[in-house]
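Many introductory courses stop at the sequence. We go one step further.
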Amino acid sequence: MKRTVLLLASALALASLAAHAESVVPIPPPAAEAPAQSAGLETALLAGGCFWGIQAVYQHVRGVKNAVSGYAGGTQKDAVYETVSLGRTGHAESVRVTFDPREISYGKILQIYFSVAHDPTQLNRQGPDAGPQYRSEIFPQSEAQQKIAKDYITQLDKTRIFKRPIVTKIDTMKTPFFAAEAYHQDYAIKHPWQPYIAINDAPKVENLKKMFPDVWRDQPVTVAEAGGIGG
């Protein structure tokens, strides 16, 4: 019986993967970008549904040095998974992406975010998950990042590539980020056969490989390898 259930789950996951791969629509990169802010690493802070999938995508992006799951938008005392899951803390499940701007631009980070990492037209939900903690939001780390994000959303809405308007929020600057509990880090890598991961998140990684071969990396960078949640 258990073997039958596992086989069924695998079949459903593969079917879902194929459906997702066909439904993704390629989007153009930002029309304009600002130069790198410094010679060092930069940070992007993004929310778009369950952080397992967002983290998994960026862990396979060349130029990303670390991708940490966590919470943004609320206070430190509420940055606890069980509390955030109630949907009343102001927090969004988020991922802090540390990247080298000499290898990948912030605009490219956003192009991946809008195209394969999540659906920016879903309001306060993402796939099977509903609530403001699963909202689509970019937390700019600088005025330059905020301008790039605003201009990009305007650009994409004008092209009508998406059937509905983009609902991604971008108004909150330099929001504090609180890393999630250790068991959430590298979750998709550690649990590739868990049904939620196989059905909802594995297709995102496959779409990244298919649509962005120029930045694809086969071996994902893990939080542990990157030096932990502070790395």
